[in-house]
Amino acid sequence: MTAFPIQTKLYTVDDLINMSVEGKRYELIEGELVEHMPPGDEHGTIASLIAKFIWDFVLLNGIDGRAGVESSHVLALNPDTVRAPDAYYDSIAHTGPLTESVIRAAPELAVEVVSPSEAADDVEGKIRDYLRAGTRIVWVVYPKTQTVHVRTTTMATIIEAAGVLDGGDVLPGFSLSLSDLFTIVDRLKKRP
Amino acid sequence: MAFPIEQAKLYTIEDLDDLPDDDGTKYQIYDGELTIMPPSQRNATELGAEMLYIIKDFIRGKNLGYAAGADGGYILSRKPDTIVSPDASFISKERAGERKPTGYYPVAPDLAVEVICPTDRAADIRRKIDLYLQHGTRLIWVVYPNTRTIEVHTSDGSRNLTVADTLEGGEVLVDFSVVVRDIFTLLDE
After folding, report:
1. Which among B117, B130, B146 has the least Cβ separation from residue A125?
2. A134-144 pLDDT, tens per residue?
3. How many CA atoms lie within 13 A of A138 on its CB side?
4. Phi, psi torsion values for B30, nearest 5 degrees
5. 3-state helix, strand, coil in chain A (%, to 5)
6. Residue contact B118–A117, C-beta within 8 A
7. B121 at the A interface (CB within 8 A)?
8. Would the CB atoms of A120 and B122 count as touching at under 8 Å?
9. What is the value of ipTM here, to two decimals?
10. What are the pLDDT tens digits along chain A (192 aa)?
11. Do the Cβ atoms of B121 and A116 come within 8 Å?
12. Which of A82, A85, A88, A101 is the most exposed place for a label (fewest CB within 10 A)?
């Protein structure tokens, strides 16, 4: 998803909340308002499937937390940084209860699905912002190679197409086989 | 940095001889797909030069192998053909084989350095890393000027280094080590 800088005045979280322009998606990166193109078909499918697998685990185990897609998370203040992860998991203990507004914390687990035209620098910038703000695990999904980069503050691992993602200390016991995920995606790409 | 060119055929290394290069255009081929490389932007090219310099400086007089700059061609595979130019690289004497006055390196480098430009796409970088590993490159350093981080890839896994960490040569450049901060210092000059 390509990001277009809009202007140079420093925006804040409150500015973002008060902006309600139909169909537009914004993030704030150190006070800079950045508009995003809504994601493509495969991108949205993968993000929602990952959220679905997390939800399955959360509901089955009665965990006090939620998965979601695209909700705004406040990563830093002065200057303000607000990112909307493609998918995420947040516990109530860490993030507090569900509200109607933005989430005033970093996601505990952030998922970013890399779009075909997305710049390598932008992806690395997102990972840095999340980890600096306290996100414990970042999954960066590369649909083209069907691999996932797992990043924490201390390590970087590449999970290959035959591998399994685990929930680490954020969601102990959670596992997602990448072949399960991409089998669904591949099936959807076939013409009837 | 590379842009795929719309094409209907699989390109080969021999086709490179017939492509215009008088305007400085550089080409790479990934599994038969021809890509052009625009000139590097400032931060990336200066960091690429720095990486080449510290590699060259380390191997000087040690008779270990050869260091190449951003225009060096490495043939990773034939049929379909893959030829790439890392921003800086090292190839050991054993892998490089007999020295010939012309021609590309016949195999993947032992160490490949990629410096990220604003126009580099994440998916393309990912693909290049996969190709290097698949064809025997033992160590890959991906340098991100904006975040001042270096991603290190080997067949055993990956690490992400920040300015306080030390970049090491592993089994490719034994005893090579440099503090990551020192590499990025040039961006403040």
Report:
1. B146
2. 999 999 999 99
3. 29
4. -110, 110
5. 30, 30, 40
6. no
7. yes
8. yes
9. 0.72
10. 445 555 567 888 888 777 766 566 788 888 888 888 778 899 999 999 999 999 999 999 999 999 999 999 999 999 999 999 999 999 999 999 999 889 999 999 999 999 988 999 999 999 999 999 999 999 999 999 999 999 998 888 889 889 999 999 999 999 999 999 999 999 999 987
11. yes
12. A101
Residue B154 token pair:
């080997």
Claim: this prediction has a pTM higher than 0.90: no
Residue pair B55/B173 in contact by the 8 Å Cβ criterion: yes
3 state DSSP class of A59: helix
Buried b (16+ CB within 10 A) or exposed e, B53-75: ebbeebbeeeebbbbbbbebbbb
* pLDDT digits 0-9 by tens, B8-39: 788 898 888 888 776 667 888 888 888 888 77
Write out the H or E segment, with its range, that includes residue A188.
helix A178-189
Domain locations along chain A:
13-190
Instruction: Return the biggest CA–CA distance within chain A.
Output: 52
- Pick from A114, A119, A123: CB nearest B118: A119
- Give me the residue label for tokens 């590379």: B2
Between CA B172 and CA B66 the distance in angstroms is 12
Q: Chain B interface, mutation test: which of A1, A114, A115, A123, most B Cβ atoms within 10 Å?
A: A123
- Structure tokens of A83? 């990112």
User: Cβ(A139)–Cβ(A152) under 8 Å?
Assistant: no
Contact between A142 and B122 using a beta-carbon 8 Å cutoff = yes
Per CATH, domain A13-190 is 3.90.1570.10? yes
Q: Best mutation site among A86, A121, A145, A147 for testing chain B: the one with the most B CBs within 10 Å?
A: A121
| CA-to-CA dists, residue A49 to A42, A57, A86, A126, A130, angstroms | 10, 13, 11, 21, 21
Decide: A189 and A41 in contact? Cβ < 8 Å: no
What sign results for the dihedral spanned by CA atoms A40, A41, A43, A44?
A: positive
- For B119, nearest residue in chain A (alpha carbons): A119
Residue B178 has pLDDT above 90, yes or no: yes
Mode of pairing for the β-strands spanning A109-113 and A137-142? parallel
Give 3-state DSSP helix, strand, coil % of chain B, rounded to 5: 25, 30, 45
